[in-house]
Amino acid sequence: MIGTMKVLVGAAALAGGLAVASVPAQAAAGPINYSCGPRIDTPRSGGQVDRVSGYNVRLFMKANAYSGQDIYFVKGYGLRPGDKVSLDWSDTKGRTYHACHGTVHRGRTGAQTWAINDRGGYRSFRACVKTRGSWHCTYWGVGS
Predict the structure, then answer these.
(1) Pairing between β-strand 141-142 and β-strand 134-137 as defined by DSSP bridges
(2) Which of 60, 84, 92, 138: disulfide with 50, CB 3.0–4.6 Å?
(3) Residues 34, 40, 43, 47: is their CA dihedral positive or negative?
(4) Interval 45-98: pLDDT, tens
(5) 53 vs 43, 116, 129, CA distance in Å?
(6) What 3-state DSSP class applies to 35?
(7) Is residue 19 a contact partner of residue 11, using CB atoms and an 8 Å limit?
């Protein structure tokens, strides 16, 4: 176990701290954890990739924004305090995933997540919103 940890830590250091330790495959689908992973600052602009149908929640991608890698982030507009937006990202095409949340605070109508790097075009991403007690999401899409 200690040897495995050293390899993972070494790999993260070689990748400039962007590597997220891989998690062993789980028997059932679902969230791995609720992590924003590498907290990459979200640029002010990015190209819209997808939106949650019926809601003003959008998935954005900014090309070559972080050390030559594309990054994804989610913004929600016209929401109510307590609503949440989520950037879900997966290295297993959605079977298991991480979720990075942003919450609408009192006096606001929007929220945004941190950005997650694409790591070579094999990660899958989706945008979600939780409003009125239930989650609504886009389909999983593979990065560029």
Answers:
(1) unpaired
(2) 138
(3) negative
(4) 889 999 999 999 999 999 888 888 889 999 999 999 999 999 999 988 888 999
(5) 24, 22, 10
(6) coil
(7) yes
**Which residues of 38-95 form beta strands (DSSP E)?**
47-51, 57-66, 69-76, 84-90
> Each residue of 85-106: pLDDT tens digit?
999 999 888 889 999 999 999 9
Token pair of 41 as six digits = 């600052």
**Identity of the residue numbered 134:** S
Cα 38 to chain centroid, rounded: 10
> What three-state secondary structure class fits 10?
helix
What is the rounded distance in angstroms from the CA atom of residue 28 to the CA atom of residue 80? 33
Nearest of 44, 119, 132 to residue 89 by alpha carbon:
119
Query: Which two three-digit tokens encode residue 49?
Result: 């990739």
